[in-house]
Automatic annotation (TrEMBL):
The keyword Transferase applies. Residues 14-238 form the Sulfotransferase domain. It comes from Panicum virgatum. This is Sulfotransferase. GO terms for molecular function: sulfotransferase activity. The keyword rRNA processing does not apply. PANTHER family: SULFOTRANSFERASE SULT. Keywords: Transferase. It is an enzyme of class 2 (transferase). Its EC number is 2.8.2.-. Belongs to the sulfotransferase 1 family. Pfam families: Sulfotransfer_1. The lineage of its organism: Eukaryota, Viridiplantae, Streptophyta, Embryophyta, Tracheophyta.
Length: 244
């Protein structure tokens, strides 16, 4: 989300460059050209992470940075992850069959740890430090995009002015960041992410973004199994995904 000094239009050749992954500054393949140095980026800086909160640097809680976490129904998380891995797997590699992968997911096997632990970590921090950690639900974002974007702007200290609200700036931001808009960007249609054997087409990042798409891919019994596991694992945390 842009702060006052960042409100001008920014159109990079690769939209993902607007919000680079923090780990990309430290894990670039040796064969890749050197990227920008973290210290050289102007403040305020904006980064994305998949990292569990417990794995973030110990300096984060005292740094004053704002953390925004987006939580999604674990069933949709699994389906989205499965499709993404199908798209990006290197040539000749293999991934487990769908049912086996689902059982692994229910057992806590996921690229960044058990999904319930990931959610609980950020949830607990948002309760302890609501002024620094914001916990959002993807389903709520889809239901009320304008309200969510306005709350996000307030949280980041960059609230929309009355004039911006009246002229429809929040709606314009939503349209600019929509899945259809991002999918239509030429760099996302024919661009490539990564290098060498680990490269894949940018189109892999954009599928449906729908709430409840899991219903087209997993059975009711599978859904109940995962819901039960997540509910049990979150018990006592104060976080409930009931009604998702």
């Amino acid at each position: 989300m842009p702060c006052p000094s960042m409100r001008r239009s920014r159109r990079p050749s690769r939209p993902h460059d607007l919000v680079p992954f923090l780990h990309s500054f430290y894990e670039s393949p040796r064969s890749a050209p050197p990227g920008p140095l973290l210290e050289d980026m102007p403040s305020p800086r904006l980064f994305a992470v998949h990292t569990p909160f417990t794995a973030l640097p110990a300096s984060v809680p005292g740094s004053g940075c704002r953390v925004v976490y987006l939580c999604r129904d674990p069933k949709d998380v699994f389906v989205s992850l499965r499709h993404f891995l199908d798209e990006i797997k290197p040539g000749g590699s293999d991934i487990p069959p769908f049912a086996e992968a689902f059982d692994q997911f229910c057992g806590g096997v996921s690229p960044f740890g058990p999904v319930w632990g990931h959610m609980a970590g950020y949830w607990e921090e948002s309760v302890a430090r609501p002024g620094e950690v914001m916990f959002l639900r993807y389903e709520h974002l889809k239901e009320d995009a304008v309200g969510t974007v306005r709350r996000l702007a307030e949280f980041l200290g960059c609230p929309f002015t009355d004039e911006e609200v009246a002229s429809g700036v929040p709606e314009a931001v939503i349209a600019l960041c929509s899945l259809d808009r991002m999918r239509s960007v030429q760099a996302n249609q024919d661009g490539v992410h990564g290098t060498g054997r680990l490269s894949f087409k940018n189109t892999a990042f954009f599928r449906k973004g729908e709430v409840g798409d899991w219903k087209a891919h997993i059975t009711t019994e599978m859904a109940q199994k995962l819901d039960g596991i997540v509910e049990e694992m979150l018990r006592g945390s104060g976080l409930s995904l009931a009604g998702k």
